[in-house]
Design goal:
Number of strands: 17
CATH architecture of the largest domain: 2-Layer Sandwich
CATH class of the largest domain: Alpha Beta
Bound molecules: alpha-L-sorbopyranose
Shape: globular
Radius of gyration: 21 Å
CATH topology of the largest domain: Dihydrodipicolinate Reductase, domain 2
Strand content: 25-35%
Number of domains: 2
Strand order of the largest sheet: 16-15-14-13-7-12-11-8-17
CATH superfamily of the largest domain: Dihydrodipicolinate Reductase, domain 2
Largest sheet: 9 strands, mixed
Order of helices and strands: EHEHEHEHEHEHEHHHEEEEEEEEEHHE
Structural class: alpha/beta
């Protein structure tokens, strides 16, 4: 018997759309016990909110998130608003006993994240942080290969996450479209926005990061603020590079910028171990590259004339999530990563495996981000609190 799960969506931007689509699609493909119902959406701009409600068929609208959270007919609050609002909404929603989905990064900083963790754990509410790239089937397959012991002792992890949309000095900061450039709203620049994804993936595949040393730069020091109309100092990091030491002893390099001309959403990683390597590139999202040096079944080395990088087209029924979608060879896209994640979240509240990443896990990612920014400021290696 299907149980309704009444969703209260806060926000109507890019992520509001991505999550709404997942709520509507999930049961067409995954058949969970709960059926998400788009009960209410909430936002400040009446015109935009009405258009959003109409596009996704939300039943009702609220202009104040506190009112939405107080409603008895809402089971789950989905936080798709700028980072400076995450903490207050999550803490208040947890106190009202609502389940929570929160966009990444978790918060403005780890101190806020700690308050959020305390609130959700005190209330015992199910919670998820939307690091959607874990649910790209090729990235999930990389995790499977690691867990199957095919990489062996890890030595190197290399992550790059580059975009190019802020190169022009004429791009303003702030406002509905460009709040990610306003440090008071976003908390940081590429570190929280892009590298948080890379860190989440890295720690999932290769375990916790213990220590970092970083360098950041703000290339364009002043931009017009879309809300005030004034030219104001820019407080975000436009680029961030850091070295990492993982708890398992392997070494990592992380690089991110929004000034890589030609790169739109170039998110890559490579993990090199004694027995094999994996490489992924979001601009080629259906492919996982795998280099097999040792055959884990026999423990023997692959014959030299047969070694080489394999390009695995991750669309077989045997690949993560793919038996829920189309037939082998047919690809899925960006939006499906949100649906896959929501399916796992619903499974977790229906007695399935605990959902990851939750707020506890995302707090560690936030701590790595904080350590990176601290190191960039003081020029020293910084330990990440456990
Ligand atoms: C930034 O441009 C952004 O929209 C991020 O905020 C998302 O998390 C990322 O997945 C795509 O790029």
């Amino acid at each position: 018997m299907s149980k309704p799960l009444n969703v209260g969506m806060i926000g109507y931007g890019f992520m509001g759309r991505a999550h709404s689509n997942a709520f509507l699609q999930v049961n067409h493909f995954f058949q969970r016990e709960h059926t998400p119902v788009l009960k209410a959406c909430c936002g400040r701009n009446k015109e935009k909110l009405s258009a959003f409600a109409a596009a996704w068929s939300y039943e009702t609208m609220e202009s104040d998130w506190r009112k939405l959270i107080a409603r008895k007919d809402i089971d789950l609050i989905d936080v798709c608003v700028p980072n400076n609002l995450h903490r207050d909404i999550v803490v208040a929603a947890a106190k009202k006993g609502k389940m929570i989905i929160c966009e990444k990064p978790l918060a403005m900083n780890a101190a806020e994240g700690e308050e959020m963790l305390k609130a959700v754990e005190a209330a015992g509410v199910a919670n998820m942080v939307s690091f959607n790239y874990r649910r790209v089937p090729a990235i999930s397959l990389a995790k499977q290969l690691v867990d199957e012991g095919r990489i062996g002792r890890p030595f190197h992890y290399r992550a790059v996450y580059n975009q190019d949309y802020t190169i022009s000095p004429n791009v303003p900061q702030g406002g509905a479209a460009l709040w990610r450039l306003d440090v008071d709203v976003a908390g940081s620049g590429v570190t929280g926005d892009l590298l948080a994804h890379s860190i989440d993936t890295a720690e999932w595949l290769n375990g916790p990061i213990k220590k970092v040393v970083a360098s950041t730069e703000t290339f364009i020091k002043q931009r017009m603020h879309a809300e005030t109309g004034k030219v104001q100092p820019v407080g975000i990091d436009d680029t961030c590079m850091f070295l990492a030491i993982f708890a398992n002893g392997s070494r990592g390099t992380f690089e991110s910028t929004r000034y890589a001309r030609g790169r739109k959403n170039y998110n890559t990683f490579e993990l090199n171990g004694a027995d094999g390597s994996v490489f992924f590139d979001l601009e080629d999202p259906h492919i996982l590259q795998y280099f097999r040096y040792t055959d884990p079944k026999t423990g023997s080395k692959v014959e030299d004339h047969l070694t080489g990088w394999q390009r695995i087209h991750v669309t077989n029924f045997e690949h993560p999530y793919m038996n829920k979608w189309w037939v082998p060879g047919c690809t899925i896209g960006y939006e499906h990563t949100f649906t896959n994640g929501l399916a796992d979240f619903l499974a977790s509240i229906e007695g399935g495996p605990a959902f990851q990443p939750d707020i506890r896990c995302a707090l560690h990612t936030q701590r790595v981000c904080d350590a990176v920014l601290k190191s960039a400021a003081n020029g020293k290696w910084v330990e990440v609190p456990a």
